[in-house]
Design a protein that fits this description.
two-stranded antiparallel sheet
Length: 285
């Protein structure tokens, strides 16, 4: 895993020996995401929930973010994240909080004013109906403290079906790694970002800053294959059949998740085969 643009371009990040406990974001998807956020990282205050080893938060810092609060619950991963921060020498701009990213304590530590919020919950969590409700409740709370020109970014499997146990990790990793461009999912608010920025007198991304220039010149299919290897999401195994009964009770059919957030414009959804990136902003009054 590496930083792909900015001050620390090409710097490698330390990762756990077993990639199955994290879910690295492919370089091409990260490049596409930060292309959409071009210019929004400079001097930004960033909240990185489910930070993992720092692939997103440290990318934002490399591209000019002033401060990043990283939330990671797993102690071993939080230690690797801190090691990556120390290796880059950005301890004055990044802090790590070992906590539940969906808890009140994490929300209280979100920087104010908040310009960018990233949420990358584990796929089993977001597929679980209760877990999904918790994720969306925290997203709604972050939207309330988001600056008018800020964004919240949520990464989920695609399609997102509540109650779905998902596909095998190796199959999901293969789908995520296919080197194709994201597909924009049109909706009623497909132009809300342009309309909002125009109303605020801001110019949408389109002329990347110097630090992002040529960010993808050395990205190739081999890179994607390497980083996607073993990038499963830890999906739980299917339930065992009930012993002592002739047939198990039928399982409820998975249902599509409602990704709309009260008080937010969006989502603007970009699909990359087995995953999706959803962008939100505060609704204009």
């Amino acid at each position: 895993m590496r930083i792909i643009a900015g001050e620390f371009r090409r710097r490698l990040l330390k990762t756990p020996p077993d990639d199955s406990i994290t879910r690295p974001i492919p370089d091409r998807v990260k490049e596409s995401l930060f292309g959409m956020l071009s210019g929004n990282c400079v001097d930004a205050n960033v909240f990185d929930a489910f930070a993992g080893t720092g692939a997103i938060g440290l990318e934002a810092v490399s591209r000019g973010a002033a401060r990043c609060v990283c939330i990671e619950r797993e102690a071993s991963i939080a230690r690797i994240l801190q090691a990556n921060i120390d290796a880059l020498g950005v301890g004055d701009r990044c802090e790590v909080m070992q906590a539940d990213a969906l808890g009140a304590g994490a929300l209280a530590r979100a920087p104010r004013p908040l310009n960018l919020a990233f949420m990358d919950p584990p796929y089993p969590l977001v597929r679980d109906p209760l877990g999904f409700r918790r994720v969306m409740a925290q997203a709604a709370a972050l939207i309330q403290i988001l600056e008018p020109d800020g964004f919240l970014v949520l990464r989920t499997p695609h399609p997102l079906l509540l109650g779905d146990t998902g596909v095998a990790p190796e199959a999901e990793a293969e789908e995520e790694s296919k080197p194709r461009r994201g597909k924009f999912r049109k909706g009623k608010k497909r132009n809300w970002r342009d309309e909002r920025d125009e109303a605020m007198g801001h110019r949408r991304a389109g002329s990347p800053s110097d630090i992002e220039e040529d960010a993808d010149e050395d990205l190739d299919d081999a890179d994607l294959d390497a980083e996607a290897k073993g990038a499963g999401d830890g999906t739980e195994a299917s339930a065992a059949s009930l012993e002592g009964s002739e047939s198990a009770a039928p399982k409820p059919e998975p249902i599509p998740a409602d990704l709309h957030i009260p008080g937010a414009d969006g989502p603007e959804t970009h699909v990359y085969h087995g995953m999706a990136i959803h962008l939100y902003a505060r609704a204009r009054s």
